[in-house]
Amino acid sequence: MLAGCGGGDSDTIKIGFNIPMTGDIPKVGEASKYAAEMLKEDINSKGGLEVGGKQYKLEFVYEDNESKAESAVNAALKLIEQDQVVAIIGPNSSKQAVPAGGTCNDNRVPMISPWSTNPDTTKDRPWVFRAAFLDPFQGPVAVNFSAKQFGAKTAAVLFDISNDYSKGLAEIFRDEWNKKFGDGAVVAFESHGTKDQDFSAQLTKIVSAKPDFIFLPDNYNQVALIIKQAHDLGWNGPFMGSDAWGSAELMTLCGDDCKGQFFSTHYAAAGAKGDTKVFIDRYTEKYGYTPDDVAALTWDATRLVLQAIQDAGSIDSDVRKERKAIRDSLAAVKQFAGVTGNMKFDAQGDPIKCAVVVRIDENGQFVFAESVCP
Amino acid sequence: MEALFQNIINALQWGSFYALIALGYTLVYGVLLLINFAHGDIFMVGAYIAFGVSVFVLGTQGLDLPNWAILACGVPLTMVLTAGVGVTLERIAYRPLRRKGAHRLYVVITALMCGLILENGNLALLGASRKKFPELMEKTIWTFGNVSVTNLKVIVIVAAFATFAFLNFIVTRTRIGMAMRAVSYDKFAIPLMGIPVDTVIVFTFVLGSGFAGLAGMLFAMSYPILEPYMGALIGWKAFIAAVVGGIGDIRGAFVGGFLLGFIEVGVVAVFPSTFRDLIAFSILLLILWIKPTGLFGVARHQKI
After folding, report:
1. Which residues cross the membrane (chain B) (predicted)?
2. Is some CB atom of chain B closer than 8 A to the CB atom of A223?
3. CA A31, CA A247: separation in Å to the nearest integer?
4. How would you label A267-288 residue by residue, b for 16+ Cβ within 10 Å and e otherwise?
5. Considering only CB atoms, which chain B residues are within 8 Å of A156?
6. ipTM
7. What is the pTM of this model?
8. Which of A11, A65, A338, B12 has its CA 20 to 30 A from that of B234?
9. How many CB atoms lie within 10 A of CB B181?
10. Which tens digit of pLDDT belongs to each residue from A176-231?
11. How many angstroms away from the CA of B265 is the closest CA of chain A?
């Protein structure tokens, strides 16, 4: 009787999603939800997920974290205590994933972040995993690529200081660039706040420092404003971006200003092959736009959890024991073939996988430029 | 040196938005002694109305007029519609309270609440996705040495100065302006003179909200990404600018708006951006210590 209050129907598996449906990056939440819904329909239409010879229906609970750190913690707690989920997918951005990861780890609930690249998300947290590569890997990829592509010796950085992801990556990039070209090779290192709309003062400083290019590890909504304003200030040089650019909404917001720029990301939709292409085509047909990296990573992250559930061999009706079983089999995953590429997991729960650099072409497509593997 | 000139232009543009919004606060306060905290959100609504007008009415999904025509018809249409929102707010939220003789404090809190209703109503109706404002103007960038100015920046700055001149003229040189000042002076004696107080108040809201609509349109053109909460922070800051200038005084709002724009851009040009609001508002606090009524304000003595 009591178990019925929390765990729900014993023939269903309940998985929580801690994603940003509103706030600064709503498109990220939408892409995550769409990918998850597609996967759920796939499995439920075949009768459910087969675990130990029995079919279980999937039930996904979507909780909005409003793109805020504190709301992400509340959303995690609600999923854990009220909805009694066996595992949590998300949050996506490191700004929410770092605090929510602590909450999940303390409550002994397996969490897997699809998109977070900040090392702190999983660091010393045995219950927290991720499906994306790390910033200490992404930073050097950006450094090496832009040094080669632009023939650059000097760089400028503009980042969001209140965002763990943006700040962490900016610092990694600066240190790496200075190591390569000597101290002072990063000629301007400027920050802004999350709610800022005018960046002209920072950009004036950057433009007058005359860098060879501008590194911009920022969310896509700010990227659209920053690049436009840089062009207004007479900047015609190139930008190098990071994976937070890779939203389906970037080109709608940014338009012509973003064409010709490069950014590092998790996969390139244009020209994909195999399973990745199947995923992209199905998603595009269903929802009307090309899935961005968050959609693909959510797909992979959710499949990882489902595989872990199957690997465990049976479903325990006690939600605590089930969570433990899922964590153990997640930690035991050594290799996984996802739509964002093959990954191996290290002891920290972080995947070792390749990064892709894409160029935004004249039609606004993200075209493969280079792939960098560790 | 060139960076200095560039930053002066940046600050003039950024200050223009503060000044335009601060004018709306000051007008309503001047007449009603009411701090219309919903004003920042009326500015946001103005930006969304500008978006709706230039995409769904005049633009690609409506009449499909050429860009110059969208701009020519869009500006007055946006101002009229936003003024309508301001007047509606006055009608359904402030006037009933005033009729019942509610204390000013409750009306101010009602205004705060109305701002939240506008924000969240927008979120509920239009969703969380950001809207991209269409480019209505062929962008021209003029460069002098390393200083760059776009035609849009010039238009924004000119619009702010023109608005100030226009409002100053209305308030100081016209009959309705005289009525506004009279209502501000004594709300109880003035109806006895045959001046329709409600009409004057509605007119004040028309002016304040209409120019918030203009600010919204110009802002959407300069920073073409719209979101439901865009009005909150800029609204508070413009309100503070109006207070520092001396709330209730049109020159005060205008000078205060530009002052805040200059301080903000100046701080970022010298210090890391994290210091911006800290230093900017410390300076403003200092000004209020020295002159609590604001730069152009006059001390009012409450009659008992």
Report:
1. 12-35, 42-62, 68-93, 105-128, 148-171, 200-223, 229-247, 254-272, 278-299
2. no
3. 9
4. bbbeebeeebeebbeebeeebe
5. none
6. 0.88
7. 0.88
8. A65
9. 14
10. 999 999 999 999 999 998 888 999 999 999 999 999 999 999 999 999 999 999 99
11. 6
